[in-house]
Amino acid sequence: MSLVVIGLSHRTAPVDIREGVAVLPHALEGVLRRFSKVVALAECAVLSTCNRSEVYCVTRDIQAARQAVLAEWRDRSGLDAEALGRHVFVYRDVKAARHLFGVASGLDSMVMGEPQIAAQVKEAGAAALSVGTSKTVLNRLFRAATEASKRARTETEIATGAVSISFAAVELAKKIFGDLNGQTALVLGAGEMSELTARHLADNGVKSLLVASRTLARAQDLAMRVGGRAISWDEGMDNLHRADVIISSTSAETYVLERHHVASAMQKRKNRSVFLIDIAVPRDIDPAVGDLYNVFLYDLDDLESVVGANLERRKVEAKKVSAILDEEVMAFSAWVNSLEVVPAIVALRRCFQAFMDAELAHAKLPEFSDNQRTQVANLMRRFMNKVLHKPVVRLKAAAEEEDGGAYVAALSYLFDLAVEEHTQKEVEEVRD
Amino acid sequence: MIYDILLIATGCAYIASALGYALHFHRPKARWRGTSTWGLWGGWGLHTTLLGAIAWSAGGVPLTSQVLPSLCAWLVVVVYVYLEMSSRDRSLGALIVPIVVVLHLLTLTKLLGIEHIQSTGYSGGWFKLHVLAYLLAYTAFAISCVGGIMYLMLLGEIQAKHFGFFYARLPSLEVLNQITNRAATFGFVFLTCGSIASSIWAFQQFSQVSIWREPVFLPVLIAWVIYAGNLAARWLGGWQGKRAAFLSIIGFVLVVLAFPVVGVLFSGPHNVGP
Question: Is the Cα dihedral A14, A20, A22, A24 positive or negative?
């Protein structure tokens, strides 16, 4: 059996292909149920986001699994399977696990380190588990991927620092004021960028959001969209001292906020900090305002350089994440290797169980009551477990070191074991 | 012998904790988090046992210059743990726990090898109260100073528009400003209480308010004036943020320097010099 991922992503396929094969959450269960009927897919899970569609499976026949996945995608997208095939990648075993761990950690995302993918991987694993298409290997794989992603995010800075202008502005506001719940934000102008920033501020719980524009109707329109209160331009200028965060994005050709405006507001605020975000081009706020005490002024260039630096830092952190993923992949790989000996362990237990049953049947024990016979059977089972415990532990340890085959052969020879198919329950019993 | 073992074990635990906090500050990892937390709690437990043992043999905690740094370190740990638990932020530990280590090492030099620690000649509620109030005041001033230093480090990066090491690790400017302000306010209140208690104690002890003529009172007076000015500037002059942080740092440095300077230049029955 091999662990395989068959997928396409933003690195291999254009958006029209990706959107064609994408599986929306409400359709996921149906897709998994269809895959569960494919004999080649012993286990499977589907990870589908706007940037990737990937099917993780455990299979004996990789080619058949690939055909089944392509057929499903062909039916969904109406695209030719051969055309789809050109965009598909297939990784197996360690590479497949390494790929999922990288995806979950955000290394393979369009914006490196983006946090949503970790939750999406977790949800994909949970969906497969609930439908029953994820069993021993995939359960472990998705758990390990979640763990690896958690380590990557806590032990490195792969997910720190905003990577968009509006998020950078909000992050900075939080770094200045801490909790934004008690803060008042004032939006000057009703441009698209100020709307985005205002929306993020509202999402982060600013107490009051005022929108001022030279055209009151535009201010009202924006205020309605972001959950703020529209005020006239003059009212906005009169209320400068009330605002802790000021976002300016007007189309004025000269400065709308000059040093004396802010200096006067700061006097009224008793020098409490104020954060000014100038995202207008040409700029709305006189740069000299930034020299005032406790005034933090950031313009578009400043925020862009913050975003650029964060992206660069994430690239550096990616190397550290890779080292963590190597460790996690090694641990997962050792566990997978240990599965190699599971059939032999099951067969060994069956062999001992058969000896025990035969001896009990032979002895008959006529003078014993049913209860006493059960006690004797339990006693023999406990004895069997004790006898087998150490060999089983050592066999699994040897298998983790990729040395299991020789021991399995020796066991099969010594006990004349017939290594056959085993049930899920038997695997569960010997797995942990 | 038992003191020596407890002193060294406490020191080792605090040093491990300080290293853990520093490493966790540099690169957050679960193992450094564990080392810092368990080191601090373990050290504090051993420290409490040490103070208990001293109190047991001396018939009460001796409030002498030998033991005071140790008491101060013990209080700093208590206040810091409260701060960490209330703010859920561990970054302050990177600067505060080393202060605990320094205070404990100071204790180590004074107590190591000593078989019996003598109690101070003074007793009574007002005496104990004034010592406790001063300890709490200086603990608060130390924390205010640490908060101020961290504020300036973070402010430097935000003003330079270059976010680096401290930006990713320190809490917000507002949180640091609040810690600095509150600690300075608490410190001032305790210092005032300590001064009142010491005056009453001196009156009871010497039948006059002779504490005012004691050289040791000079640094206390300097501290009181510095922090009174500090708080007035904050609350009345609108000196928030950077200026307030500078005031806290300068105030603490002057207070720390004032004790040895006065100790060297002057002498009296209530010597606190080195």
Answer: positive
Return the closest-CA partner of residue A333 out of A59, A84, A140.
A140
What gap in Å lies between CA B117 and CA B53, rounded to an integer? Answer: 10
Q: Is the pLDDT of residue A422 over 60?
A: no
Q: Which residues contact B194 (CB under 8 A, 6 or more apart)?
A: B129, B130, B131, B132, B133, B134, B137, B220
Query: Which pLDDT score, from 0 to 100, does residue A367 have?
Result: 83
pLDDT in the model for residue B273: 36
Tokens 């890779």 belong to residue:
A322
Tens digit of each residue's pLDDT (9 = 90 or more) over A192-202:
777 888 888 88
CA A407 – CA B179 distance, rounded (Å): 64
Q: How far is B174 from chain A (nearest CA, A)?
A: 5
> Total structural domains in chain A?
3
CATH number of the domain where residue A6 is located: 3.30.460.30
Mean pLDDT of chain A: 88
Vertex A351: Cα angle to A350 and A354 (nearest 5): 85
Residues B128 and B103 in one domain: no
A308 exposed, middle or buried (CB, 10 Å; 0-12, 13-18, 19+)? exposed
Q: How near does any CA of chain A get to the CA of B28, in Å? A: 6
For residue A382, with 0-12 CB atoms within 10 Å meaning exposed, 13-18 middle and 19 or more buried, which class applies?
A: exposed
Is residue A211 included in any domain, yes or no? yes
Q: Which residues of chain B does A176 touch, with a Cβ-Cβ cutoff of 8 Å?
A: 158, 172-174
Do A128 and A195 belong to one domain?
Answer: no
User: Which residue, B75, B97, B121, sits at the end of a domain?
Assistant: B121
B contacts of A291 (beta carbons < 8 Å): none
Query: With 0-12 CB in 10 A as exposed, 13-18 as middle and 19+ as buried, what is B137?
Result: buried
What is the predicted pLDDT for the residue at A424?
A: 55
Q: Which residues of B touch A178 (CB under 8 A)?
A: 171-175
Least CB-CB distance to B173: which of A273, A302, A310? A273
What domain count does chain B have? Answer: 2
Q: What is the pLDDT of residues B119-163, one digit of tens each?
A: 665 667 777 787 788 888 888 888 899 999 999 999 999 998 888
For tokens 């313009």, what's the residue?
Answer: A299
**The pair of three-digit structure tokens given for residue B30, joined into one six-digit string:** 């679960």
Q: B168: distance to nearest CA of chain A, Å?
A: 8
Tokens (6 digits) for A353: 């169980």
Parent domain of B266: 122-274
Residues A189 and A103 in one domain: no
Residue whose C-alpha is closest to residue B181's, from B242, B234, B113? B234
Which of B121, B143, B176 terminates a domain? The answer is B121
For chain B, the distance separating the N- and C-terminal CA atoms, rounded to the nearest angstrom, is 25
pLDDT, one tens digit per residue, over A231-246 is: 999 999 998 999 999 9
Q: Which residues form the domain of A257?
A: 165-304
Tokens 């099917």 sit on residue: A55
Q: Which residues of A are catalytic?
A: 50
d(CA A268, CA B33): 44
Q: What is the ipTM of this complex?
A: 0.76
Q: Any idea what DSSP says for residue B211?
A: G
**A2 in Cβ contact with A60 (< 8 Å):** yes
Q: Is A161 on the interface with B (CB under 8 A)?
A: yes
Answer yes or no: pTM beyond 0.90: no
Put simply, the answer to whether B161 touches A298 (Cβ < 8 Å) is yes
